[in-house]
Structures are given as C-alpha cells and as structure tokens.
What does this fold into?
Amino acid sequence: MDEYGLDANGNFVPREKGAHRITGAPSFQLVSPAAFLSPTSASGVHMAETFLKCVGGRAGVLEKSPKVLELLFSFDQLDARAKLQYLDSNKGTGKGDPGRLGRIGTNADYKSREIFQIGANVAGEVYEEYGRFDPPILDNDEPHVVAKKTISKAFFGLRDVGLVKWDDVKKTWYNGGDIFTCISAENHRRADEFEAKADAASGNAKASYRGTATYWRSPDAIPTDGTLAVGFLAKYLEYDGDMNENVYCWFGVDATTHAASGKSVRDFVMSEKKKNIKWRNDYFEECKKSGKCVIWIQFRGPHGSQESADEFYTNIYKVQLDKWVFYGETGARRILKGEHLGLKHLFEAAASTVPGPTEGRVNVGNVAHFLSLDESYASVYCGNDYRVSNDNMESWHGLFPGPWPENAVSKKRVISYV
It folds into this structure.
C-alpha cells in the first residue's frame, strides 16, 4: 500500500517510496499501548491527544474501533488470509518474523501494518475483477473467492473510519482520510508554534526550533496505520469497549460459560486464561518434585483452524517430565542436545507451525522459559497455544479457554516417548 506524503499545502498524496523493511513504507517509531495510555514525552503527549481528537474522542473510539479490530483480530479474517496463503504480506513466501505472525498478544504495530497491506492487496484484486470492493458472496463461490470478498469488504470499511483512501487513477490504496488529514493539520499547528519560538530566538536555539518545525511538517511526524491500530485497541479497551466473541476466537470463548460469568468477554477470557495457567503451574510444580509425571501435549499454530485440525496442529506427544527438565537453561541445553528426544521433537514441531524459516526458533532461552513456572511464559510457545492432558486424554486443559476441534485427536498421531 502506497504510504502517504504531503503536498505544499499539507494535503495527502500517495507516497511511493519508503524504508520499511517489511512493507516498503516509511519507517516510524514502534509504539506500545502505553504510548496512548500514559505518554511521558511532549511529542508522545501530542500524539496521544491528537489521536483522540482526530478519531472523535471517546465516542469516536467506541464507534470506529470495532471495524479496525474486526479486520485485525477476527477469526473470519484470519481464516480468509490463511486460505489465500497470505500469512504475511509476502503472499505464499512464509517470510516474516514469528512474533508478528503470532497470536493476539503480539498483534501490534508491525503486524497490523502487515494485515492492512494484505487488505489493500486483496481489495485491489477484488475491485479489478468485480468493479467494486464489496461484491456479495454467492452460494456457488469457491472458498478462495469467499476469502477474497471477506477481506475486501472488511478493508473497505476502513475508508469510513478515515484510515485509507483509494486512488482511482493509480488504482491503489494509500493511508489517508479524515484521521490522517486531521493529524496533519494538528502537526502543522504544532510546527507553527515552533516557528514562532524560532522567530523570537537567536543562535542555536533558533536553528533548533526551525529544525523541530520542519520535522512536524514532514510525513515522518505522522504515525503509521499500525501505530493508530495500537491506539484504537488501547483506547477501546480503556473505555470498556466489549470485543465481539469472534474477535476472541483465538481463545475460543464459550458463549454459555461467558454469559453465566457475568463478565465482559475481555475479562472472562483473561480470568479463564489465568485459571488455566495456575492449573499448569501447580501441576508442573508437582512434576518438578516427583520427576514421574506423564503428559499428553499438543500445540496449535497461530493460523490453525478452530473447525478442523490442519497442518497448523502438531501431533500429540506423550512424554515424561523428569526433574531435570525444569532446571532452567541447564535442563534446556540437555533437552536440545537430545537427552530428552520427546520434548526436543515437541518443541521443534511447535516451531514448525509458524510460517517462515524455522532455523533458530527453538533455543535454550525459550525452552527454559516455557518449562519455568513464570506465568508470563506459560500460555504460548513460538506463537502456539497448547493443551495438556495427564489422564490419557480423558480430559484436556487448554491454556486458552474454549474448544479444540473434535478431530484434533483423530487426525493426528500420538507419538509416545514413554
């Protein structure tokens, strides 16, 4: 997607060059939710305040965020991208950092840019074929056609949000619209303030103020669409926006249990996740003491379907957890040297579910972290969630709440190392 530039009047025009190593778009600083929730620098405060003003305040956040978050997080969208092999913006190549290709917790600045780029690519293809961005889905449409139409329609919705515009001459999308135009205007006002300071100053101070004013008039001062995506998510959750169940599809929210809990989807998911992590760590603590626990464990990659087990699901590994596997990096080194082939092959299988080169993904650090009792490393490995059984698969404990497809067992082998 062509990035934006500014003409002499501060209006947006498509930008065709850039340095972004993934999408070719201009590079800007990466941000975390804290940039919008508790900014510390003057420029950070300006960005956070400008974002909120330009999206329409609290009401605008609650109105516009669902369209953005649907494209980024919903299972329908991810499933459609997977069907088209758009696992990152380099279609079918599998290139990409596993963190960016991971689950909802890692879906931040860079990954959001990737998804916007995919949306722009697909929407352009749909427009070329049908002459519109939101053609109806027909009963006889092939799965890949349904996938294209699904992505294009959701991306087209970003136009109404004010994040993208279509150049009908060049037949390409670019970052523009009401939000970016508003941010540009606010940045120009900030530049005017520094120009005024420069006029009243002399020497080095004058030059410094002039340089700062130039920066605020440049495209480099405008946040990327990925940055704005972080803003939408952070502020939406801060304002108690309740994500649709399908947005939390990764966590497989059970609608009945959720309703009975009386909690918002977000709070329900997090409370269930915390409960499951506690079960895992309490059980692993027992295993660490006895060295005799036998478990069945299966991983699911970040693009795995929830309807049917596929290539993103690993086989089921039956392994014994010896005491020494919990000995931090010492134990991890022994595992990777082959002293515990079951765990070594398990981790390698999990790493292989994430598209892209697998060399170096399984390492001493992440193996040690996974087998530690640290809550922050308990729920995901290499972008995979997983489930564990300690009773011959009579029952399973998934680290995220919700169901796995019934054929996740029947379609996969049980590989025993015990």
Confidence is low (pLDDT under 50) at residues 2-28, 88-107, 245-256. Residues 3-238 form one domain.
